[in-house]
Amino acid sequence: MTVSRVINNTGRISEATRKRVRKVMEDLHYIPNSMARSLVLQKTKILSLLITDITNPFYTTLARGAEDAAKRAGYRLLFANSDEDYAKEKDYVDMILSTRVDGVLFAPTGDHSVENLGQLQKHNIPFVVLDREIPGIEADVVLGDSKEGARKLVEHLIGLGHHRIAMINGSQDVSTARLRYTGYCEAHLLSGLSIDDTLVAHLNYRDFHDESALDALLNLADPPTAIFAANNMLAVGVIQSLRQRGLQVPDDLSVVCFDDFGPAGAISPFLTLASQPAYQFGLLGMQLLIERIEGEAVHENRKIILPSEMIIRASTQALK
Amino acid sequence: MTVSRVINNTGRISEATRKRVRKVMEDLHYIPNSMARSLVLQKTKILSLLITDITNPFYTTLARGAEDAAKRAGYRLLFANSDEDYAKEKDYVDMILSTRVDGVLFAPTGDHSVENLGQLQKHNIPFVVLDREIPGIEADVVLGDSKEGARKLVEHLIGLGHHRIAMINGSQDVSTARLRYTGYCEAHLLSGLSIDDTLVAHLNYRDFHDESALDALLNLADPPTAIFAANNMLAVGVIQSLRQRGLQVPDDLSVVCFDDFGPAGAISPFLTLASQPAYQFGLLGMQLLIERIEGEAVHENRKIILPSEMIIRASTQALK
DNA sequence: AAATTAAGTGTTATCGATAACCCAAAATTA
DNA sequence: TAATTTTGGGTTATCGATAACACTTAATTT
After folding, report:
1. CA distance A149 to B283
2. Which of A201, A239, B177, B190 is the most exposed place for a label (fewest CB within 10 A)?
3. In Å, what is the separation between the CA of A16 and the C1' of C1?
4. Nearest-by-CA chain A residue for B267
């Protein structure tokens, strides 16, 4: 007990015993057992960060922001990567529940994540939702402005004279994919262009194994002159595939996408894109979460929408 | 106790009570408390992964491998990012010790990490060292072949006719930086070229804030015609700086480096580099660690050296 | 000087799970 | 049928920390 008081600096301790305890702690290489501590205190000082793709620079930069904020507040970070896979996400939620983390920063795989988030709610684990809004879930959430960003990207293409603009989208189960499609449509409507749904393909954000969608687009009687990839990983797939087919970007087709590539992207700044403040996603999300956990007042649910920045680089050019 | 037996499938339980327990568990949304469990069992089923730069694709890919292996074996991953900063690394080691993790996959910041690894040894926490060898530490270790890789990169440049080859290296406190320098020297010696140490700059792997080193190189009476950056992040800095100075790669200077850029690098495959199997680093490291923890036999320390692959792309060309 | 308050430290119960032991009833064996 | 074994499940102590309370001394107050 006396040791506990020295460690936590609570209660009254004479300077003499305090020193004596400190010395013995040193000599014995004593380090308090945080498991035992968690058990009595009913809090672990562990937060969980669940992201959907650890190889995507957007999420790693986000993770960096989350980590910085967590460390600053004295929390440890239990890390989980769902790989855009609902089953993995569910596994990790079980793990999170049994670990009794104090809160979760949750980037959901898609709308069906409502089940997993419901689990957290049922067990009263505070969480903040990142990047993708989930219908039916009331919580603090940090989002990007997918619709605006998409609209600006497509308007940029239209401004360059493109009229046949394809969209390689993520799954319709994901809010950002839906909103980016809405932005795509808005840009067309505002410019008086009609929307041709044969130009829109729905894949999966994570990667681009299925090239048949791109084949179909390129084989159209009136093929696209530009492609809007809904995120950075899809853009990588598109560009690689185009290159394999001997097509040059931007000479043969212009390409734009959402999300930048982190430091790696700086080697050859190439893609014109809408860059989201990934670090801020993580930092702000974590701040909201910690406020929820530590703050007494239960505020309204907060919704932070972070703007994205249009970065015009070399992957787009005026239609010849 | 009966519940515990049902959960762990130990002891004798009649099918009837087993079912009854399961049902009540369901009804009450009961989830075992892993903290309490850890306390009696004296193991947490948590492993820690400590990397030095979460924004570096090499480490995120490594993390992916580590995560996959950990998950497969039923371990949770406590995540830590030292940012190439010894103080942060120390903080995280303290956190790791108080969390009583079952083991640590440790990518050290440099030779001084011997202190932090010593802490782990003192507390009998098994660990595997990744990527950088630490003098004075006996442990399983997974490394790349820095010397060979560097030699091949520099020989490639020499083969293209370059004789004035600069090296932008990491800190001499890091084994890979030392070995890459050795490889650089070997390539010169084997080709009968002398080594000019004014062409070698020692910075820090993490980034490239200090451009004075590059300035000094470019202002030499006999400036380099090629640059070997000791890792991918340094290469990013070099290329950006060269571009700012109006120099073209590879027309004005050829550039090579260690480590690829993950999926992001695929957008515009540009840099000629020695690619290390990052995923394997994580996967194998984690396997060694789990073997150590779970295996009864205490083997000799194992040292795995993974080869790197030369990838020749567009950032190098023959000297005019 | 007696009564009260404060300072410093020790005791006991607790968090939630499991190891080790125990014990009744049922099943098997002699 | 009596003796033994097996089955199924309950008790108690434990992991390491902390909350709540108790108890000496020493310091103040009346």
Report:
1. 38
2. B190
3. 32
4. A236
